[in-house]
Amino acid sequence: MNPLAVYVHIPFCPSKCGYCDFNSYAMQGEIVERTARAIIREIRESPWAGRPAKTIFFGGGTPTFIPAPLLVEVLNAVTDTHPPLPNAEITTEANPGTVDASKLETLRAGGFNRVSLGAQSFDDGDLVRLGRVHRAGEIERAVRAAHEASFDNLNLDLMFGLPDQSRAAWRANLARAISLEPEHLSLYCLTIEPNTPFYKLHLRGELPLPDDEQQVAFYEDCLERAAAAGYEAYEISNFAQPGRECRHNLCYWRAEEYAGYGPGAVGAVRDPALGVRVRTTNLKHPERYACAIEAGGPAAYESEPLDSATLQTERVMLGLRLAEGIEVDGLDEGALSRLARRGWIERDTGRVRLTRAGRLFCNDAVVELI
Ligand code: SF4
């Protein structure tokens, strides 16, 4: 059977950050364990059981908000259902404020081999403003604890374009992250999403954000400083030491199959009966999700067969973000010529990829191509 990527969504956080529009809930009490048990049941009753896992990724929310032994139980359900390929990458996201050495040791012994820390900033003022529960000192402690627990594959997430952030402050953040020598860096610009407290502040003019020109300068810093420290910009926002690219996220960007478990999780797996890939989206709220599973019903509220036009659109949208680019086959020659004239793309051996200048206009390039 063909291997696939497996994603597990743990939808709980200690509190809700002001900019967050992820499917996450600041809930406590019996719903946490109940949801984890429902996720285990969903996995064990999976229609895709038996297909090996090439990667496994626990995201959220904050997976490490739930007790480590329970997280390992969920992982055991995944590995029983989807036997991992040798050396499969098995990641958990973690908030630096929710892990210590003993928790990380339990996770490492339980089978996780990669940890992705949501650091976001090394400035306590930024962290307070973002609504994060951790402080800068905890990031360094978490990195040390991860190394002590024998994790040798570690990602740090950082955000730039924060309210009132200066270029010097961003450069200091980058330098501090690089000094910790993580194998991988995810560097994203803060985006203001509707229905978040930050959105309301933004509408009231109370969120002093850097302008477009400053954001481009911050991104140029990412490219330069990461490259100087030996990280390859293998995706627009992701930088890795050689061979340490996130293999799970590469599956998404390469539009490969993935199974999704947990509240709000999305999957895209080929249905052998229909002969096409089907996108499934699970019930989002933990209570509704757990009730559905406990009643023996499906976790998914939406199931959509993906036609070839949709798959082609996704191949362009996701694949163009990668430094390796995408195959030229099926792309409009006129659009490719226009993008080449603007200096946004380059072509060779049947592939097309964004240039450094083109990385700043990825969305426009995608619109042109689809
Ligand atoms: S930790 Fe992440 S998922 Fe949780 S509220 Fe903050 S941004 Fe959202």
Automatic annotation (TrEMBL):
PROSITE patterns: RADICAL_SAM. Keywords: 4Fe-4S, Chaperone, Cytoplasm, Heme, Iron, Iron-sulfur, Metal-binding, S-adenosyl-L-methionine. One of its GO terms (molecular function) is coproporphyrinogen oxidase activity. SMART domains: Elp3 (SM00729). InterPro entries: Aldolase_TIM, Coproporphyrinogen-III_oxidase, Elp3/MiaA/NifB-like_rSAM, HemN_C, HemW-like, rSAM, rSAM_sf. Residues 1-232 form the Radical SAM core domain. It is found in: Cytoplasm. Pfam families: HemN_C, Radical_SAM. GO terms for cellular component: cytoplasm. The keyword RNA-binding does not apply. GO terms for biological process: porphyrin-containing compound biosynthetic process. Belongs to the anaerobic coproporphyrinogen-III oxidase family. HemW subfamily. PANTHER family: COPROPORPHYRINIGEN III OXIDASE, RADICAL S-ADENOSYL METHIONINE DOMAIN-CONTAINING PROTEIN 1, MITOCHONDRIAL. Probably acts as a heme chaperone, transferring heme to an unknown acceptor. Binds one molecule of heme per monomer, possibly covalently. Binds 1 [4Fe-4S] cluster. The cluster is coordinated with 3 cysteines and an exchangeable S-adenosyl-L-methionine. This is Heme chaperone HemW. It comes from Fimbriimonas ginsengisoli. The lineage of its organism: Bacteria, Bacillati, Armatimonadota, Fimbriimonadia, Fimbriimonadales. The gene is hemW.
